[in-house]
TrEMBL record:
<dbReference type="Pfam" id="PF23539">
    <property type="entry name" value="DUF7134"/>
</dbReference>
<keyword id="KW-0812">Transmembrane</keyword>
<keyword id="KW-0175">Coiled coil</keyword>
<feature type="transmembrane region" description="Helical">
    <location>
        <begin position="165"/>
        <end position="186"/>
    </location>
</feature>
<dbReference type="InterPro" id="IPR050482">
    <property type="entry name" value="Sensor_HK_TwoCompSys"/>
</dbReference>
<dbReference type="InterPro" id="IPR011712">
    <property type="entry name" value="Sig_transdc_His_kin_sub3_dim/P"/>
</dbReference>
<dbReference type="InterPro" id="IPR036890">
    <property type="entry name" value="HATPase_C_sf"/>
</dbReference>
<dbReference type="GO" id="GO:0016301">
    <property type="term" value="F:kinase activity"/>
</dbReference>
<feature type="coiled-coil region">
    <location>
        <begin position="189"/>
        <end position="223"/>
    </location>
</feature>
<keyword id="KW-0597">Phosphoprotein</keyword>
<feature type="transmembrane region" description="Helical">
    <location>
        <begin position="74"/>
        <end position="95"/>
    </location>
</feature>
<dbReference type="InterPro" id="IPR055558">
    <property type="entry name" value="DUF7134"/>
</dbReference>
<keyword id="KW-1133">Transmembrane helix</keyword>
<dbReference type="InterPro" id="IPR003594">
    <property type="entry name" value="HATPase_dom"/>
</dbReference>
<protein>
    <recommendedName>
        <fullName>histidine kinase</fullName>
        <ecNumber>2.7.13.3</ecNumber>
    </recommendedName>
</protein>
<keyword id="KW-0902">Two-component regulatory system</keyword>
<keyword id="KW-0547">Nucleotide-binding</keyword>
Length: 425
C-alpha cells in the first residue's frame, strides 16, 4: 500500500489525535518564530524578556485551540480571535502565529455552522484592516522600549501620510486576499462534504428500500405459492379421499366400482403431481420450469365432472357472453374460485349435499356464484378447515380488483359469490 495513502487513512480514522499532533507541531514551529520576531533590535534594551514572554504567550494561545477545531469549531475560533485582539492592542505588530487566522477561517467554513462561517470571514477581514492600520500608524508599544523593525520604520516615516496609507492598504489587501481564499476553499470543501453525505444517505435509503422491496416480493411470492399449493393439494386430496372411501365400501358389492374408483384416484393423483412439478419448477428457476397451460374457464367442465365422481350432484351453467377479455390470470382466478367452493362442499357439505355453479357475464365482468344445501357453517370441528382457502381466494380475486363474499345461506347450506372485472382498456 502507498505510504502516503496509509498516512492519509490513519489521519482520517483518528481525527482528534491528528488535530492534537498538528497543534503541537504548530506550537513548536511558530511559537519559537514568534519569540524571535518579537526580539527588539537592541538586545540590551530594558524589558526584552517581558516582551518575548508576551509574544510567546500570545502565540501559544492562538495556536493551541487547533486541537479542538473539529468538534468545537466555534469555541476554537473564539479563543483565537480573543488572543488576536490581545496582540492587536498590546502585542507586537506581526507574529508568525498569525497564520492560524486563515486556517481557522477555513475550518469554520468546513466544519462550523453557516452563521459562524460568515462571522469568521467578517472578523478576519476586519482584523486585516485593523492590523494594516496598526502597522502604518500606531506608535511603538509601551511594552517594547527598543521597538521592532516595522515600528522603527513607522517612526521614520511618521511625517509621510501617503506612504503610511500605502502600507496600510497593501497589508490589508494582502491579508484579506489570503483570508478570502481560505474561506472560499473551505466553503467549497463544505459543499462537497454535504453533497457526499447526501449521496451516502441516499445510498443507505435505497438499500433500505431495496431490502423492503425484496421482503415484500418474497412475502407476496410466499402467499402466491401457498395459494397454489392449497388449491392443488387440497382439491386433489379431497377427491382422492372421497373416492377411496366410496370405493372401499362399494367394492364389497361391485368390484367394478372399486376398479373405476381407483382409476379416478390415479388420474387425479397424476394431475396433482403434474401441477406440483410445475410449481416446484418455478421455485427452482427458469431452466427447470415446464410451461404447461394454466387451467381456465374452458376447464371448468372437466373440474365439475371430477367433482361429480365424488358423489356430489353439481348443476353447472353459464349465462350470457363475455364482452371483453378478462385480465391475464383472471380466468385462473375464476377457475380456482369454483374449485375451492366445490372442494369445501365435498369436505363439509355432508351426505346428500348438492351444489349449483353459475357463471354470469355482465357489463362489468364475470360473476361466479356457488351454492350448496349442505351443513355449511354448521360443520363439526372434526370437518371444519382453517379457512385458508377462502382467505387465499379473496387475495387472488383482489389482485384483479374483484371481490369475494362467502357465508352460510338462510335455511342451510353455504354460498360463495365472486366477481372478476374485465381487463381495463
Amino acid at each position: 500500500m502507498n505510504p502516503l495513502r496509509r498516512i492519509d487513512t490513519w489521519f482520517r480514522t483518528h481525527p482528534v489525535i491528528s488535530d492534537v499532533l498538528v497543534a503541537c507541531l504548530l506550537l513548536l514551529t511558530f511559537s519559537s518564530l514568534s519569540v524571535g520576531a518579537a526580539a527588539p533590535l537592541y538586545p540590551e534594551a530594558a524589558g526584552t524578556e517581558g516582551w518575548m514572554l508576551l509574544a510567546f504567550t500570545i502565540s501559544v494561545a492562538q495556536l493551541a485551540p487547533w486541537a479542538i477545531r473539529r468538534f468545537r469549531p466555534v469555541l476554537a475560533a473564539g479563543i483565537t480571535v480573543f488572543f488576536c485582539l490581545v496582540q492587536l492592542l498590546i502585542g507586537p505588530d506581526l507574529l508568525p502565529s498569525i497564520i492560524i487566522v486563515p486556517m481557522m477561517v477555513h475550518n469554520l467554513a468546513v466544519n462550523g455552522p453557516r452563521w459562524a462561517s460568515f462571522a469568521g470571514l467578517g472578523t478576519a477581514l476586519a482584523g486585516a484592516v485593523l492590523n494594516g492600520a496598526k502597522i502604518a500608524y500606531a506608535p511603538p508599544s509601551f511594552l517594547d522600549p527598543g521597538a521592532d523593525l516595522i515600528s522603527n520604520n513607522n517612526a521614520a516615516m511618521s511625517g509621510d501620510v501617503t506612504q503610511q496609507a500605502v502600507i496600510a492598504v497593501s497589508f490589508a489587501v494582502g491579508a484579506a486576499s489570503i483570508v478570502l481564499a481560505a474561506w472560499a476553499f473551505g466553503d467549497l470543501a463544505r459543499t462537497r462534504r454535504l453533497a457526499m453525505e447526501q449521496l451516502r444517505d441516499r445510498a443507505r435509503q435505497l438499500e433500505v428500500e431495496a431490502a423492503q422491496e425484496r421482503e415484500l416480493a418474497a412475502a407476496d411470492e410466499r402467499n402466491h405459492i401457498a395459494r397454489e399449493m392449497h388449491d392443488i393439494v387440497a382439491h386433489s386430496l379431497q377427491v382422492i379421499i372421497t373416492q377411496a372411501d366410496g370405493g372401499r365400501y362399494a367394492g364389497a358389492q361391485d368390484p367394478q366400482v372399486a376398479v373405476n374408483t381407483l382409476g379416478t384416484v390415479s388420474e387425479t393423483g397424476r394431475k396433482a403431481l403434474g401441477e406440483m412439478r410445475r410449481l416446484l419448477g418455478v421455485l427452482r428457476g427458469p431452466e427447470a420450469t415446464e410451461f404447461h397451460p394454466q387451467p381456465g374457464l374452458v376447464d371448468l367442465e372437466d373440474l365439475v365432472e371430477t367433482i361429480r365422481l365424488t358423489g356430489l350432484d353439481v348443476d353447472f351453467a353459464v349465462e350470457g357472453e363475455a364482452r371483453r377479455a378478462l385480465p391475464t390470470g383472471g380466468e385462473l382466478a375464476a377457475y380456482r374460485a369454483v374449485q375451492e367452493s366445490l372442494t369445501n362442499t365435498v369436505r363439509h357439505g355432508g351426505p346428500n349435499a348438492t351444489a349449483t355453479v353459475r357463471l354470469r357475464w355482465t357489463g362489468r365482468g364475470l360473476e361466479i356464484e356457488v351454492q350448496d344445501n349442505g351443513r355449511g357453517a354448521a360443520a363439526s370441528e372434526a370437518t371444519a378447515g382453517s379457512r385458508q382457502g377462502l382467505v387465499g381466494l379473496r387475495e387472488r380475486i383482489g389482485l384483479f380488483g374483484g371481490s369475494v363474499r362467502s357465508g352460510p345461506r338462510q335455511g342451510g347450506g353455504f354460498a360463495v359469490h365472486a366477481t372478476v372485472p374485465y381487463q381495463e382498456i
